[in-house]
Amino acid sequence: MTTITVQLPDEVHAQLTAAAATEGVGVNAVVVSAVQDWLHAQAQRANERARVQAALADDPHLRALLGDE
Q1: pLDDT digits 0-9 by tens, 9-55
Q2: Is residue 27 left, alpha or beta, with left meaning phi > 0 and alpha meaning psi from -120 to 50?
Q3: Is 68 helix (H, G, I), strand (E, B) or coil?
Q4: How far apart are CA 27 and CA 8, in angstroms?
Q5: HEC-encoded secondary structure of 3-67
């Protein structure tokens, strides 16, 4: 496991601490979950970009419509 230091504005830290307490979890668990969600979303965006690029590569008519000939 790796330990990192994150700088947060005081207000964000206060909101994070309060939200974690409301959910009955630790701040660390919330941050880990948020990072995992972000990484998952990044992977989905990368997959979608690849699908769009493949569609463009396979369809000259679509490339022409988008002005990307």
Answers
A1: 999 999 999 999 999 999 999 999 999 999 999 999 999 999 988 88
A2: alpha
A3: coil
A4: 12
A5: CCCCCCCHHHHHHHHHHHHHHCCCHHHHHHHHHHHHHHHHHHHHHHHHHHHHHHHHCHHHHHHCC
Kindly report the number of other CB atoms within 10 A of residue 17's CB atom: 14
First to last CA, the chain: 48
Structure tokens at 40: 């998952």
Q: CA-CA distance, 69 to 64, in Å (whole number)? A: 5
* Cα angle 41, 45, 46; round to 5: 115
Instruction: Report residue 27 as tokens.
Output: 């701040």
21 phi, psi to nearest 5 deg: -65, -40
